[in-house]
Amino acid sequence: MNIGNSSNLSNALSDIAVMTQRNMLRYIRLPQLLVFNALLNVVLLLLFNYVFGGAIRTGGMEYIQYFLPGFMVQTVVFGSTQTSVGLAEDLSTGVIDRFRSLPISRLAFLTGRVISDVTRYAILIALMIAVGSIMGFRFENGVLHVLAGVALIILFGIALTWVGVFIGISVRDVETAQVAGFVWVFPLVFASSLYVPIETMPSWLQVFAQINPVTPMVDTMRALSLGGSVSASLWRILAWDGVIILIFLPLALRRYRLLGQ
Amino acid sequence: MARLKNGDITDPSSVVCADASISAQGISKRFGKVRALNNINLAVEPGTVFALLGPNGSGKTTLVRIFTTLLKPDSGTAHVAGYDVIREAHSVRGLLGLAGQYPAVEEILTGRENLEMIGKLYHLGKQKAKARASELLETFELSDAANRKVKTYSGGMRRRLDLAATLVARPSILFLDEPTTGLDPRSRLGLWEVISSQAKDCNTVFLTTQYLEEADRLANKTAIIDKGQILREGTNQELKDCCGGETLVKVRIADRSKLAIANRALMDLGGDNLHSYPDIGEITLPAVGGTSLLPEVVRRLDKEEVVIAELALKPPTLDDVFLAITGHTAEGNTEVRTDPANTLG
């Protein structure tokens, strides 16, 4: 087998495209999936802003200004649990056997999942920006900064989706995948600078929140949206993206290969 | 793609089919403490239909999964079209079509979209994928439902679509894992037609089944598998000849409690080959001398005042073979044999 030649590469790309299309069709044919996902995000956005917003001190800034950049990040963090669920669903039917018995690139099935999920993130982030704007959120730093920030969130989403892929392929059961997702996602989201300034937490938790990749991601998005220095947090989140992908992509691929044992 | 092996092919008619063989050498597989397959050896000639016949849990699916590169054996080697299923898995995948035990079709896609998707994954190109999908929908009588989502399909339609999906790239080797399980008789007949037609054009078909009738009807060769071991292998005629293959006289008596009396009365006619089945009140014995045995059976039972509910000559079926070899029927694991001498396997 030679893997290097160009026709194999174009075949692999075509396989990934077909797999992505397959997953996207799911969103189109079962729009309720995406609709309720979006609705949940809108409800959470409203609740957090109007219920907690008044109680959380953010240094004189309107809470929605403080909170929305982080909420966009939260969308992809929570979203990656859906990746696990979708994958576990595929693995619990005979469909996976068909794909595995086809002469297609091993990466295609998993990558197709990642790409379609990332597309979902982009749609949800756009919606969050729209709803946030109605609630009074204003970008103070120009369109380019915002686009750069969204691109960074999506990159972070890609990294976390590989974690979701790894979990989905490991648990192979839809309900377990759902719960397993929450276990790692909740601490990441809440023990970070996403909802509250880290300084308000007990010191031991501050240590975790500082290390938590969600914190530099949120700080970067916040700075890109509202102004301020990004350099420190930007390098940290890029490093995190790299580390997460380098660990979880091979792990997920290995799991996929081990399905046959 | 397909590679022609320059081995020692002497029969010119087999040359075309030469690369569509299937073989296993010493395949074993365990799942935890369960020994799913135990030293399986078999060889399937190109262009033939091979049936693996066995009850639930006998290891049929495990073997299919090994041949189709979905599962690695613990030991042993397996070859499909001359390629090693472990080391040359990718080449094997290019040649085989697999229809698993449960239809692997996408519910939210239409029948046509399902087939086109598979065509694209085989890199047929968009136009060819479309054309091939239409062709298969026609063949499998799904044209009318082609643009409906699969979730509206009946069980039989799903099976047909699933089988169509396995044929998209015209694979030379087909693996069908219980292709007709759960189908109504009419759908089953339809599928049988399709499977039979596949064996033409040098395609090799490897199918598993719990239905003896199915193996009998479709296969050139049948292997009987039970508890992870191949017990017998041969043509259907060979199997019938070797094990319980004679025409039988079958007597069903009206009052099952008199089975022992009937048994005694007929004992010297059947000897070792007389079998009784208490749960259905039936006795079978070889029809030595054809129909001439029938009056004798009637006379003897009449003398003992045993009322006959049914008396018939029963041509041999694989059912009998299976029973003779394993001591239980293919459908379940209930012991129905009174004869303890069950050492044929």
Task: Explain what this protein looks like in three dimensions.
The complex is a heterodimer of chains A (261) and B (345). Chain A has one domain (6-258). Helices cover 79% and strands 0% of the residues of chain A. Chain A is mainly α. Chain A has helices spanning 6-29, 31-52, 63-91, 95-101, 106-134, 143-171, 174-190, 203-211, 214-226, 231-258. Residues 1-15 and 332-345 of chain B have low confidence and may be disordered. By secondary structure, chain B is of the alpha/beta class. In chain B, strands 6-7-8-3-9-10 form a six-stranded mixed sheet, with helices on both faces. Chain B has a four-stranded antiparallel sheet with strand order 2-1-4-5, covered by helices on one side. In chain B, strands 12-13-11-14 form a four-stranded antiparallel sheet, covered by helices on one side. Chain B contains twelve helices and 14 strands. The longest helix of chain B has 15 residues, at 185-199. In chain B, strand 1 (22-31) and strand 2 form a beta hairpin. Chain A binds chain B through residues 1, 11, 14-15, 18, 21-22, 25-26, 29-30, 93-104, 259-261, and chain B through 65, 68-72, 88, 90-91, 93-94, 96, 98, 100-106, 108-109, 113, 117-118, 120-123, 149, 165.
